[in-house]
User: What shape does this take?
Amino acid sequence: MKSEILKKGAETLAHRALLMSAGVPASAFDENKPFIGVANSYNDIIPGHIHLNDLTAEVKRGIRDAGGVPFEWGVPGVCDGIAMHVEMRLSLPSRDNIADNIEIMTLSHSLDGWVGVTNCDKITPGMLMAAGRVDIPAMIVTGGAMLANTDEDGQKCHPIQGFGLTGQVRSGKMTLEEAEKKARGCLACGAGSCVGLFTANTMACFTEAVGMSLPMCASTPALDPDKKKIAYETGKRIVELARKNIKPSQIMTEGAFENGIRVDMTMGGSTNAVLHIPAIARELGIDIPIERFDDISRKTPNLCKMIPSGDHEMLDFHRAGGIPAILSRFKSVIKDGITVSGKTIMEIVESAKVKDANVIRTLENAYMQEGAIAVLKGNIASSSVVKQTAVEPDMMVHSGPAKVFTDEDDLLLAISEGKISEGDVVVMAYMGPAGSPGMQEQLTPTDAIKGAGYKKVALITDGRFSGGTSGPCIGHIEMEAYNKGPIAAVRDGDIIDIDIPKRSINVRLSDEQIKERIKTAVAPARKMTPFLQSYRDRFTGKNCYCERI
Assistant: This one.
């Protein structure tokens, strides 16, 4: 790109003068050095991002040492954990803002390639969307996970457990003072993405599996010295990709997406992957319907029990061999293709070894014969998703009366007042991309229910879940209540039948009853901003946001 727009000539004198004013040496033009952008999502709000300046410095050093010219700019980042219970639901909309940011910067400044330095929930998928959309040489450095602390009983503790404390306090099982003491005592873990297989690490694993980051990048901890080495090597490697013009479309093929989805299914990743992966694929002209996740899940045994579904943190997974090791369990079905490393996926897999069969089990010793995600359908949902690997066996099939809410605070109050009973099905409606708007994450409700000690309470919603969610929680219900979906017809006391093995979810109402109730359904008022209003407008009247969000 640069060689065309910034080639020597009178018409580019001003362009080159401005760049030299920013510190680019004249020799960079004489030698036609590749111009490489570095999209740095550092901020000092998100623990997963507070160390990214150090990684960015290593990326830029690698670019220079390989003969390129680095240009750095900032990318916004929202911490889903901090933003979880605020009234403005801007986390998911920020993903598209990030993709737009990178499109604007790379194309406006005639860059030959770019590196995304990222870590958390919406930033990584936003960068991958940009990689597919712009389709110039690109690589991703994910910042790595924090390390769990251990409490006085020797149990692992980490920030996301704070959401469960909410339920314990609300239900009277713990005083606020006791919760504060625990939170301040061991929940703060320092730099890095949250310790388990939440959305940030799910998407980091997907990024490596799909071939867009160097081997072991996803699992290397945030403050491990090897993370800086990976960042430096990424800087060197992107210059080579730019010189050879190797583009994301050559790497993120349909087969690569299948590999990435398989990794998510076998590890037990976040249901947010069902939103992000199709969105990334669409930027490359690849269609991944929601049924593809269910199809791959049915054929992919669950080999890992990562926090929150089990006890293993990302450090354990890293020591067990990381993404190359888990891919090696599926050699016979892996789709080969090139990666940003210069090696093919199969070359990486062939040299991989599982170092801990307790963390990454064998196919014969799988936790489940199916993978993470199940897609449920019925008269209440044309589609919905559940992380079945995080559901206890006795809740895989459940029927119970609905308790309907349209606001998180109302549910928390109901828990405090003892109005939720074992066997209930909590319904969080009007939480979709139009109704919320912004498709509010539901970790506060799910972990409050769990923290309160309920064992047989299910939750269904047209919103989405954090990767931290566990239990019988069914989200992404289509179509959403705001768009007159059947979930808007559910009232307190209606019986809801859930059968995860049979992939069904139904409310015991006739089609006529559903239609009549929808006619009188009224959406709750939400606080809006112009940005959120434009987001709502984008999804109002649409049928399936999983295929368009």
Summary: The first strand starts at residue 35 and ends at 40.
